[in-house]
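Bench notes, afternoon.
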Amino acid sequence: MRAPYQLLWSRARVRPRYALFPLEGYPASRLPNWAGSTARILASPALGAGFAQYLLETPSGTSGHCPAGGQVETFLYALEGDYRLTLSGRPAAQFAQGSFALVPPTMDSQLAAVTDGKLLLLRKRYEPIAGVAPPEAVVGHESDVPEEIYLGDEGARLQTLIPDELPFDMAMNIFTFSPGRSLPVVETHVMEHGLYFLQGKGVYYLDDEWMEVEAHDFIWMGPYVPQSFYATGPTPSKYIYYKNVNRDVQL
C-alpha cells in the first residue's frame, strides 16, 4: 500500500491474452463452501481462463468443502499452515505446507485448518475420454517429488506433481531456477497457465513485453501467448503452475 503523499501505481497488467496480478491491490471476498476464510479469485472465465483459481486464507478452526458433482475436479496446494484432509471413503490425513492433492470429480473433499494457513485451490471441468477411466485421487508432498534437470540446465529444475498419463487432463508442476538461470526458449503453445510465484523474483516475458515479477504474484497465460522467464536476485526463484494436457482440440 502506498502512502497518501505518493502517486498510485501498480505492476498489474490485464491484456486480452494474459494478466499479471500483484496481490497488493487484490481485494478479498468470501466463498459459500469456505465459511470463515477469505478468498481471492485469481483467475476465472470472466478473465478468459478455462479454469478457476483461488488464494484462500484459512484461520485455525475453519474448514472448506469441495463437493463431488461428477464434472469438476479440484487441486489443492498448502502454501502455509497445517490441515487435515478428508476424501470420501478415506480416513483423514495430515496436509501440511507443501502438500498437494488432486481430487477427481467423483470424490468429495474436506479440508480443516489446524493452524492459520494459506491455500491455492484450482477447479476445472474434467474432460472425459471414451474408454479411459477417470483418475484416482493423487495426494503427496512436494518434498517427495524428485527434481528433474530441465533440458540439460542444472540451474532449472522441474517437479511434476501429477502423473503425465492419459486419464489426467491437467498438469501441476513446480519450477525452481537458480539466480541468473532461465527457460531456454520463448515457448508458444496451445495450453494455458495459472502461475503463482512461491519465492524469489525475476522477469517474465509475455506476448511482447518483459515485466518484473516476485513472490506472491499471479500470472494467467492464455493459449499461444509467447512466454519465457529469467530468474534474478540473490535467491532461487520458484513457482507452481497449472496447464491443460492430454486432450485433443474440441472442434
